[in-house]
Each structure stands twice: as C-alpha cells, then as structure tokens.
Amino acid sequence: MMPAGAQEEGATTSVDPAAARPERQPLAGVAAAGAAAAGWGVAAVFVRLAHDGPLVLTEYRLALAALLLIGMLLVRHRHRGQSRRGQSRPGAQSGLRLADLRLVVLGGTLLAADMACFFSSIERTSIADASVISALQPALVMLVAGPLFKERVRAADVACTAVAIAGVSVVVVGGGLPTASGLAGDLLAVVSLLAWTAYFLVSKRARQDVGALEYTFGVTAVATVVVLPLLALSREPMVVTRADTWLWIALLAVVPGSAHLLINWAHRVVDVSVSSVVGSSNPLFAAAAAWLVLGQRLMVVQIVGGVVAIVAIGFVAGRRRLPSSGAALEPGLVEVIPSHGSRDARVSKTRIRWRDASVRRG
Predict the structure, then answer these.
(1) Which of 92, 144, 252, 296 has the highest local Cβ count within 10 Å?
(2) Is 258 a member of any domain?
(3) pLDDT score for 261
(4) In this predicted structure, what is the pLDDT of residue 87?
(5) Does residue 340 belong to any structural domain of this protein?
(6) Nearest Cα residue to 197 out of 287, 279, 312
(7) Count: domains in the chain
(8) Alpha carbon distance, N-terminus to C-terminus of the chain
(9) How high is the pLDDT of residue 211?
C-alpha cells in the first residue's frame, strides 16, 4: 500500500466504489417519501368530510398525534428496558441534546406556520392557486441542497423536476382555471411555501443527529403549542362542535401524522432534493382520493398531467447519487497495485479496477 498520489509505472489503481461510483437512492427511503405524499394527499378528503374549521382540525389533530407519538416512545423505551448493551444505531438516539432541541423548536414552529398559512390562504384564494404555489417547493429545495447538504444536482434532475411541477399543476387546475384570485390568499400561500421548504430543510439537518420518532414527536408537540393561540385569535370555536368530527380528527392524526414520521425517517437515507420531488406528488393522491371517495370528476388532461408527473418523479427518484467533488481521489481510498505487464513507460496504462463492496447505510 502506498500513499495516495504516489503511483508506480505500470500500476493498476483501485478506487473504492463507495466513494467514486454513484449509488441509487435507497428504495425503502423513496418508498417512505411516496407513502408520506399519499398520506398528505388523502388528508384533504378528511378535511372536506369534517364539519369544523381548519384551525380546530389542525389543533386537535396535532394534539392527538403528539399523544400517539409519545405513547410509541414509551412503548419502545419499555421494550429496550435497561439493557442497551452499549450499542446505538446512527440517527436513532433516545434523547434530545440541547443543541438538537433548537432544531426541534424551529421545525415545529415552521410546521405550524405552514399549516396555519395554507389553511388561511384557501379561505382567501382558490385551492388551485394555493396548491400550485405549494408545488414549487422542490425547486426551492434544489437551490440550497448543494450548499447545505453537499448534494450534486444534475441538469437532468432540474429538468425532470420542472416537468413534475408542470404535471402536478395540470392536475390541480386541469378541471378549470379559478375564476377569482385574492392577492392576500396568494401571499399567504407563498409564506406557507417558504415555511414548508424551511421545515423540510431543518428536518433533514436535524435527522443527522435526532431519531425520526423523537424528532417527529418534538415538532408535533411544538406545533400544537404554536397553533393554539392562532386558534384563539381566529373566529373559529375553540372546541369541536360535532361528535362525528372526532373520527376525521383521529384519521388526520394517524394518516398525515404517520406521513410526517415516514418523511422524517426518509430524510436520513434519501437526498432532500429527491424526497422533496417525491413528496410534491401529494396533489396527485388528493385528486385520486377525491375521485374515489367524493365522486369528483377527473378530466383527461388531469390524468395525462398526472402520468407525466409520475414518470418525471420516477426519473428523479431512481437517479444515482453523484459523489461529491474530489471524493473519487480522496486520500486513503486509492490503492496502487503493482502490475505484471510491460515496464515501458510509454505503453504502461493506469486502469481503475472496481472492487465489489456493499455499502450499508444507517
């Protein structure tokens, strides 16, 4: 073995493929992001079927989800008992450090801001306008994924993301353009977009050190506290007015709540530039659920737009990760193996030999 950079004549170079060869996004992580998008999509049907205001539904849904999550934490703690055996899985810490707590509080505040602004926006503008604006999230994520997380976004990724956003937009407005649009509602939708994008990025950062279950519980609890004064200042009643609304609150706590847990788990193993594109497909699931449950019609153009969006999302989700700049020649990963071939410097060749290696991810 020789230091990197020292190469004998006629040598064969071996580079660890974990650093030099692009790898696919983990299938389980992409599937989790897709399931999260489905959970967020069908939640729109639950909200439509409920008979109370959006902030009331949001507050009680968050509170119930927080109770369910803390129950899951207690059950897991009981099963682990006192025998940890000195082992700790990456990204699955059992507690929160003070530094991590700041990210949890920030994430919960951003999540509450996103929910409050989005629900307020659809009261002042069309759902179509608000949905199209929120579908722009992957574009914002791609702008900062490189500087923040060292992700290399290719031109093909940008093009496929643009096609996916266009396809989702066609699904949203394909049934007819909105007849009126309020500027205040559109501005609230933009604020919701920015809050959701920031929440996504903060969650990605937090998942480097905090377990998915702990983080999801933390942000849900914080969001519950933040939404409460907003509900008190609104004109909505502070309590649920109909008994049957509790069914939809329970479904909202379980289904979208599980979606947040899934996407937070996926943040550990999937590039944020990919998970944001997969997650932006939730209007496709919303349209399909509305067709199945509410009997809302789907126009041919909406179906075509949905197919185009799904294909584009599939290309982004199935792309290979690119190694960061300089990773292929990182010191310590280059092995020079003497060759038994010609010793003539003019005809000696340097070849890259790929060694089979399994890369395990936490």
Answers:
(1) 252
(2) yes
(3) 96
(4) 52
(5) no
(6) 279
(7) 1
(8) 29
(9) 92
Residue 289 has pLDDT above 50, yes or no: yes
Q: What is the pLDDT of residues 349-361, one digit of tens each?
A: 333 333 333 333 3
User: What local confidence, expressed as pLDDT, does residue 23 receive?
Assistant: 56
Give a yes or no: residue 231 inside a domain. yes
- How many angstroms separate the CA atoms of 345 and 178, rounded? 72
Amino acid symbol at 192: S
In the beta sheet, which residues pair with residue 24? 320
| pLDDT, position 260 | 95
pLDDT-above-70 percentage for the chain: 73
CA distances from 200 to 216, 321, 322 (A): 12, 20, 21
3-state SS of the chain is: CCCCCCCCCCCEEEECHHHHCCEECCHHHHHHHHHHHHHHHHHHHHHHHCCCCHHHHHHHHHHHHHHHHHHHHHHHHHHHCCCCCCCCCCCCCCCCCHHHHHHHHHHHHHHHHHHHHHHHHCCCCCHHHHHHHHCCHHHHHHHHHHHHHCCCCCHHHHHHHHHHHHHHHHHHHCCCCCCCCCHHHHHHHHHHHHHHHHHHHHHHHHCCCCCHHHHHHHHHHHHHHHHHHHHHHCCCCCCCCCCCHHHHHHHHHHHHHHHHHHHHHHCCCCCHHHHHHHHCCHHHHHHHHHHHHHCCCCCHHHHHHHHHHHHHHHHHHCCEECCCCCHHHCCCCEEEECCCCCCCCCCCCCCEEECCCCCCCC
Quick check: is 89 in a domain?
no
Q: Which domain does 45 fall in, by range?
A: 28-79+94-301
The mean predicted confidence, pLDDT, of the chain is: 76
